[in-house]
Amino acid sequence: MESGKASIALVTGGTGFIGQRLVLALCRSGAAVRVLTRRRLDSVERIRSEGGVSFFSGDLSDHSSLRGLCEGVENVFHLAGLAHTEGRGREDYAEEQWRTTVGGTENLLAEAEGKIRNVVYLSSVKVMGAGGDREIDETFAPHPEGSYGTARLAAESRILEFGKRQGVQTSVLRLSMVYGSDCKGNVPRMIEAVDRNRFPPLPETGNRRSMVHVDDVVQAALLAARNPHAAGQVYIVTDGRIYSTRQIYVWICRALGKAVPKWTVPVWLLRAAASAGDLIGAVRGRRFVFNSDVLDKLAGSAWYSSRKITEELGFHPTRDLEDSLAEMVRYYRQCRRS
Ligand SMILES: NC(=O)c1ccc[n+]([C@@H]2O[C@H](COP(=O)([O-])OP(=O)(O)OC[C@H]3O[C@@H](n4cnc5c(N)ncnc54)[C@H](OP(=O)(O)O)[C@@H]3O)[C@@H](O)[C@H]2O)c1
């Protein structure tokens, strides 16, 4: 219930993986929260039971459906978007990504004009691309990855320009890959593949990857909203650790209670298999399950620094992947049972 509260925090994407945690944290801090959603309300029971939450039915890509969304709102947490894996490969993916991410952000800002005081936008390190074995910070010139990265970068600039024009505090958080019990993406896929003995025992290649736990993303979002130093700033958010794929593989084996194989697949063999996969993909006109892209994701680096947010906003990550894998494996097993 929103009535009786001085101001409202609006969360777009409040029904998603990160958004649900942020909504709970805001409610527990006593805020009244409004969640934008396209879904049926009975499908979001988990946050519906929390006092202080109300839902607003609308679609970011349809401006007229947002009328009234920002009435009484002080803080906006803008999380809604199309994940980089969602619908990828579809012919109209780039167009849909742009419509939701950039068009959706423009529609939201048009509705917010003259009403709000603060926007925190959750973007991605994919706006910068990966720098190989180099650690990337916010000064790195952006090389957006695909239509996802390009659309995110454009949405970031819409947000920051809005802040300058309207005298509103705006900040952008560029998240590295986010993990947590019910996350989607590469880590849960890897857990399943290892469990089913479909993941090759990789050797230690010394690649460096950054990630962050969902609870720490929530911490970063709240810090950015509350600290005036965040105005007009862009921050990378990671848990401050560096992970190699081999390390993650070994931890997953342990969390699953499986013995770590004593042998490894040599890198040259993986490269040869990836090249063969590229060739098969080119001949049949469809991506093969293992190719150079997949190998790059497995063995490549994507290493980012979150020093700036730590120094300027006092961000201190509380979780790491090794500890979190137990909860992720528990969740994976629960889903398999149900
Ligand atoms: N998870 C990660 O590893 C990661 C990493 C980097 C950046 N990010 C970014 O962080 C944000 C949140 O990620 P997440 O993993 O929590 O996302 P998620 O679980 O995929 O949730 C996406 C959310 O976006 C909303 N949404 C999508 N299209 C919409 C539209 N047209 N109008 C209104 N709402 C719409 C959905 O709401 P309804 O379905 O209820 O309408 C849903 O709540 C995303 O922008 C994502 O790109 C995530």
Describe the structure.
There is one protein chain. The chain is globular and about 60 Å long. Strand 2, helix 2 (45-48) and strand 3 (53-57) form a beta-alpha-beta unit. A seven-stranded parallel β-sheet has the order 3-2-1-4-5-6-9, with helices on both faces. Strands 7-8 form a two-stranded parallel sheet. The protein has a domain at 8-175: Rossmann fold, CATH 3.40.50. It is α/β, with parallel strands linked by helices and 338 residues long. The mean pLDDT is 91. It has helices spanning 17-28, 45-48, 93-112, 146-166, 186-195, 214-226, 245-256, 267-284, 292-299, 307-313, 321-337; strands at residues 8-12, 32-37, 53-57, 73-78, 118-124, 169-175, 177-179, 211-213, 233-237. Helix content is 42%, strand content 14%. Helix 3 (93-112) packs parallel to helix 4, helix 7 (245-256) packs across helix 11 and helix 8 (267-284) packs antiparallel against helix 9 (292-299). NADP nicotinamide-adenine-dinucleotide phosphate binds at residues 12-13, 15-19, 36-39, 59-61, 79-81, 83, 100, 104, 122, 124, 175, 177-178, 185.
